[in-house]
Every structure is written in structure tokens, then in C-alpha cells.
């Protein structure tokens, strides 16, 4: 497709694997610019395992069209940003503007490190309500330190010319002038370029999910040092708050039971109803008598014997010999109890 021996320049691209970011890269590649794509990963679903517009497999298009992909995990600093984003949240816990600024700063630093010329994104004017209107696009360009060197090929014709355009490095007329939420033009370009494997435009970031955001707010309120295990646990099961330091996670199916068991750590308690279909229930936090009885009652409520007068529940603490497990016979929790404690 390209004459790789005569690149006119080098661009660093933000690349999720989604349609827009892939098209932006292809538009730059077609002008014989070398592209190194950065695929950013976080603890909140924007990774290569999530088949969504937020992220998808970044390698198949890279192999087909001839660009390099580097994986970059934003780690704990992304968690700290989510706790208190300077520019606020979207509808849920999504700090879209601060997220974009962080990724662009990483791209800027990498651009400077390797001596590249500019940064590319797949942003489209007015496509996303919080982060892609003109004022927000200008803001992230300025705060990220990329003023004049941030190219948005899908909307370039309706944005001010950038330094690479003014210097003749890229041809503005070979880029697009897309605006709004419709994907009609993007799909036309995909067919034209032979880009036939891209995800549907559904949000992939867990921070946009109502239920996950509610559980995350609760976690940040009561947990000082949040880690990867805490965040992974938010993805599965039903969640209940028993006290300031104690929460409960109830598996809904076998796969979730397995996941909850794998995430249980030393000091956690696991509950299960005996001799019947039962969720695995994890309790994290102080195990006083009230919490143990509440956890056992909720376990009974979600097992196959939930209509029985009393159910036998077994429980033990992770880190102890399983022979130390104990049993308690208890009535299933009332619906009002579940409503009062459910996150």
C-alpha cells in the first residue's frame, strides 16, 4: 500500500482499535506518513479484551495496513485521575476530558522521545457530548501541550489548519470534514479502504456504565487505597454495603462464582449454601456477628432454597485452613433488607 522507504514524516496515533481511530490512521498512512499507534489500557475496560468502540483488537488492522502498535498501560495514575478529575465527570463516572488529556500527554512525550512530528486521533467534531465539541477539542489540545501539532483527520477540513498541514507535511484536501454522531461516512470510508473488521459503536469504557459507576462511587467513598483487585471485583455479581468497611459480592452464575473465588484474598470470607444450588458470596471487611448473619441470610436468599424457612450456610476465611469452616442455619433475607443494602 505504501512506499515505506520514503516516509515524509512520522505520526504518533491514539488507537483504540475502533473504527474512527483506524480510519484516522489510514488517512495519514495514505499520505506516506509513518504511524506508530499507542493503544492505551486502563483498569476500566478500555483494553484489547473488550470488543467495543472504546477498544478492540488493535493488531489485525495494523498488520493489514502497515503500522506499528505499542501497548501502554496507564496504571495507578489513571485511577488517581478518576478519583478527582479536574474537568469533572460525564453522565456517570467517565472523566472523558481528563482521560483524553492524559492519553495525549503520553503521546506527546512519546512523540518527543522518538522525534516524531505530530499526534493523530480519531476524534470527530460533535460526536461525543462531553469531549468532542469545539471548545473541548481546543481545551485538550492546549492542556496536553500539543497546540498546532494535534491532527484530527476525520474532521480536519472543519478545524483550523495544523502545523503539519501548514508546512506541507500532510495535504488537508486528502482528509475529511465529518461532524456529528452519524457513522455513515465512516462506514463508506471503511468499505473504500477495505477495513472490514471493526466493532460496533457501543461504549466500552466501564466508567460510562450506570451500575459500575454506582459501585465505583461506593468503593472510592469507603476505600482509601483502591487496587486492581477491588476494581475487578466491581465487574461481577450483586453488590451490597453492610457497613463503612464491609461489603458483600454475590455471584449470579457459575462463571461469576468462579471469578469471585479467584478474586478472594486473605482476610475475605466466602459463604455458600450447603447441598443446593448456591451463589458464592464474598464478604470483604470486619466479620462481626451482625455482618456474618447478614451475609449468611443474603446467601440463603439467592440460593435454590430461598423459599425455605431456614437454610444451612457454610463460611470460612481465606488464609485459614478450610477445615476451619463454620456453619450457620438462618432464614433467607427479606426483600426489604436487600433493597436497603444493595448498591
Report on this model:
The protein has helices spanning 19-29, 59-65, 75-83, 96-114, 134-143, 163-166, 184-193, 210-222, 228-233, 254-263, 289-302, 335-341; strands at 9-14, 33-41, 68-73, 118-120, 150-151, 238-243, 246-250, 269-273, 281-284, 311-317, 326-330. It has 343 residues and is of the alpha/beta class. The chain has two domains: 4-193, HUPs (Rossmann fold); 236-341, no CATH class. The strands form two sheets. A six-stranded antiparallel β-sheet has the order 6-7-9-8-10-11. Strands 3-2-1-4-5 form a five-stranded parallel β-sheet, sandwiched between helices. 42% of the residues are buried. Mean pLDDT is 91; it is low at 48-53.
As residue ranges, the low-confidence spans are: 48-53
**Main β sheet profile:** 6 strands, antiparallel
Q: Care to count the β-strands?
A: 11
The string of secondary-structure elements, in order, is EHEHEHHEHEHHHHEEHEEHEEH
Overall number of structural domains: 2
Query: What is the number of helical segments per DSSP (H or I, 4+ residues)?
Result: 12
Give the radius of gyration: 25 Å
The CATH homology group name of the largest domain:
HUPs
Global shape: elongated
End-to-end Cα distance: 52 Å
- Top-tier CATH class of the largest domain: Alpha Beta
Query: What's the pLDDT, averaged over the residues?
Result: 91
